[in-house]
TrEMBL record:
EC number: 3.2.1.-
Organism listed in the record: Owenia fusiformis (Polychaete worm)
Entry's Gene Ontology molecular function annotations: alpha-mannosidase activity; carbohydrate binding; metal ion binding
Cofactors: Zn(2+)
Lineage top rank: taxon: Eukaryota
Signal sequence extent: none
Cited InterPro entries: Gal_mutarotase_sf_dom, GH38_C, Glyco_hydro/deAcase_b/a-brl, Glyco_hydro_38_C, Glyco_hydro_38_cen, Glyco_hydro_38_cen_sf, Glyco_hydro_38_N, Glyco_hydro_38_N_sf
Coiled-coil residue windows: none
Protein name according to UniProt: Alpha-mannosidase
Reactions that this protein is recorded to catalyse: Hydrolysis of terminal, non-reducing alpha-D-mannose residues in alpha-D-mannosides
Keywords for the protein's UniProt record, in alphabetical order: Disulfide bond, Glycoprotein, Glycosidase, Hydrolase, Metal-binding, Signal, Zinc
Enzyme category, top tier: hydrolase
Amino acid sequence: MERVDCCGIRSPPDKIPIYKDTRKTTVASCIYLSSQTMELFAVGLTIILQGVLLGLALPADFRFTQFDFLRNDLDQQDQPSKCGYESCNLGKPDVLNVHLVPHTHDDVGWLKTVDQYYYGAKGTIYRAGVQYVLDSVIDALVNDPSKRFIYVEIAFFSRWWNQQHDSKRHIVKQLVNEGRLEFILGGWCMNDEAATHYNAIIDQHTLGFKFLKDNFGDCARPRVAWQIDPFGHSREQASLFAQMGFDGLFFGRLDYQDKAWRLNNRTMEHMWRGSPDNLGDAANLFTGALYNGYGPPGGFCWDAGCGDDPVMDDRRLHDYNVDEKVAAFVKAATDQASQYTTNHIIMTFGGDFAYSAAPMYFKNIDKMMALVNGRQKEVNVFYSTPSCYLYSLNKAGKKWTTKEDDFFPYAHRNNSFWTGYFTSRAAFKGMVRDTNNLLQACKQLDILANLGPEHSSSYKIDVLKRAMGVSQHHDAVSGTEKQAVAYDYAERLANGSAECQEVINIALNKLQDKAPSIAAALEWKFCNYLNVSKCGLTENNTAFYMTVYNPLGRPVDKWLRLPVRGKAYTIYTGPNGELVPNQVVPLSKETKMVPDHNNSRATADLVFKASLPALGFNTYYISQSSGRRTAVRKVRQNRNSDVTLKNERVSVVFDSMTGLVKEMTNTDKGISIPLSQNFFYYIGHDGDNSKPEKQASGAYIFRPNETNPYPINTSATLEIVNGELVNEVRQVFSNYTSQVVRLYAGSPYVEFEWTVGPIPIGDNKGREVITRYMTKLASDNKFYTDANGREILQRVRNYRPTWKLNQTEPVAGNYYPINSRAFIRDEVANSDIQFTVLNDRSQGGGSIQDGNLEIMLHRRLLHDDSLGVGEPLNETGVAGNGLVVRGKHYVYLGDKSSSAKLHRDLGEEIFMAPITAFTTSKLTPEEWAEKHTITWSGVRSALPSNVHLLTLEQWNDKALLRLENFYEKTEAEGSGEKEVQIQDLFAPFRITSMVELNLGGNQPLSQASKLQWETEDGQQGDVANEINDFEHHAPFSVKLTPMQIRTFEVTLSYT
Ligand SMILES: [Zn+2]
């Protein structure tokens, strides 16, 4: 276990990092205690001397510039900067301008961990070291002002930056101010777009942007989003990018058929409408698909690991190849240009971890550019950046086509659909979602409790922010990393979670203790295994206290389940000691068999409903008493009467013969449908990947052997639990598949808790396990998914809205990411029925036959799919025989409007669930109530039902606040614009001033000006300031239109 210090680097023993949490004064920062002044002087002198010596060795025109640059840097650091679009070379009219963009694509973990990639460790796995890339590139930029380079992944850049002396930092700042080093994208990582949740996407960008802004100022504000490697592209991501103030997006991967069509029609570059039905033009984003992925044209890869011939330009030597090289370059440029629409093209000169030997790559590019420009007139090639290329397109005076659908699913050839990773590493995907939940609560409580420097809370929270940042990477939450790297990500999340749990512990003490004293401080503990009914504190104490914190801005009821050993319990809460009804439900054999349940002594779950105040907590006193548990009744197979699970609002009938679900009814709405549900598996294809038809199913690719999956069983054994608060039907399908169908009192939806694993591989076959909900609804080839937890997209079987699909994989080619919900509708006229499933982590799924909705739960495969990871996706879990994964689906049957309301509200409750903390105390409930606040809310009144408190966190000496209207325009009753007065919204503080920022928090909206684009359909492409209608006057009334997120920097005055 490695501890990471405050700047994300491991400290040498002689340099002690001092963390300065100066929240109320300046930016939190790291300082090293050392004889640094002398070191800096010495380093500065060395650099000057090196510069002089280097200058002597260079041609005369270089010599002056080199020395001039250093003088600028050391003497005139406040020179006006010329960065951004002002620094662009816009080429020449009437020729083909080639924007040559040197770049490095640095995966924030994949084959190696993020730190191994940074250092260059484990060279046998992959020869890559980001520190050498940056060292090498910075030197090259210093040596030649004509060169340009972009840098993208701030997780890496921050590591390097934190290890540089001030003299080097000044040099780098100067490079940034002159536009020679440009930050593009600027997130902590280049996030995956299929398995990520919008909350985490926004956070990871905010983290990267803040690093850039704090260290470099506005010249480092990225103008262009750069998603060159993710495996498919989400419309919501485009919408979020537009709201972050990006002027454009470039990416590298799109379906091979779509790409061919777009090249043919010259629409690789277009205007993407990220939210046509809700945010309108504010979510439009100019988007360009790159011609050649993110690599150079064939024959022009000159990094240390490349095999292409260098430019051999001395006629006195053998193998002179200038003529071929120039001809090949001009051909590559003109070929590419023939499929784009302006006289500008972009060529990406780089690749994975490229430029660790920058002089080698640059030397050949320099030679080639000089030769190409010197020998012919039709092509003009020069160093450029994606933003300068974008700016040239913007100046081209063109009208662009538009697009409203997304870029899922992605296939690179006919049998290779990248739809497996929607589900790969199902447990890790769940962990990432849960950890986001904890992080948000932790950031809120830090602000609500007004924790200060003495608590080091911002340091602790940063550990988790960075861990979450790297986990969003397109080889992290995607599940496409090596197993060892997946463990590293999980360890980072666990370490960060422990830090955040400590912050919550401190905050709860501060908010609860009526007469705070160190002696009276409680130690709130957290149970990280509640999903498998394991928690030492609740199992081993006959009495304990529990605080439940609700991170939502509205009151919620939450059903809780605590692992216990007693037969009966008494639960009190509230200042007057109100009794809380509860039920003790024996654990199932299947729960006891989950390997992660090991060492637990729990025999039952204590079930009760916590009714929680908005953005606040309740404390419960729980003690063992005498009484009886709820009985578990075995159901005899093939009995005569069906089994019905029901409460006053909904019922589910199980077939008497098979034990499978056969009917569902919404009693409130009077809607009843035949519904069956079962688990199936596909056998993963085991080809050797040598050609499309031999594509194997793997971490990226889903390729089932056959179109029809095999049922795991055609029947299930049943057990029934009936109680006052919860009824359960427990189904066992096989020794690796079980399910609890659960209905709480008063709940309008049904929980399907699935447990899958260890997936058997004894027959040397990989299996991909799905659950399938089967109705008779006439869904007319359609189903619906969310995108990254936000807007809903319609999916049509064997169809893509903007290009003609030749479907080659009837199952995998119809799979889409399901981040938080999916549904099917009865599409016939006059029917209003909708069947909705919400999930607790990102999964892949589809509607392969009308009326059906299938969702992949877990995958275990024995072949690599030959897309780089080099390992089969064979997770073995803690027991070593195969990972067991447990998760939940929440199933609702209703009409369209009630379904939308339910999935919006429930979706919010799932990803921002209450946080539970436990402690033991000798105090009686009466004594406790005297000393502690038992019920507390951080808001004076609840937020309107459509409004979500998306962010509340420290922001230098202020706070960052995001509010979101999370309903779409017309989807449900209550959709529409909402207004919140926020001056006195929060109980612990008043807001005294506020500035509206863009979504990423790196620019006041009042200063935002985005490039304007014309589109063929006549609509203006962008109106950045349209949403900036905020009144900066008390009581700070904020209006939120459907799906709008507004971001504010707020000044707080604690009362
Ligand atoms: Zn990558």
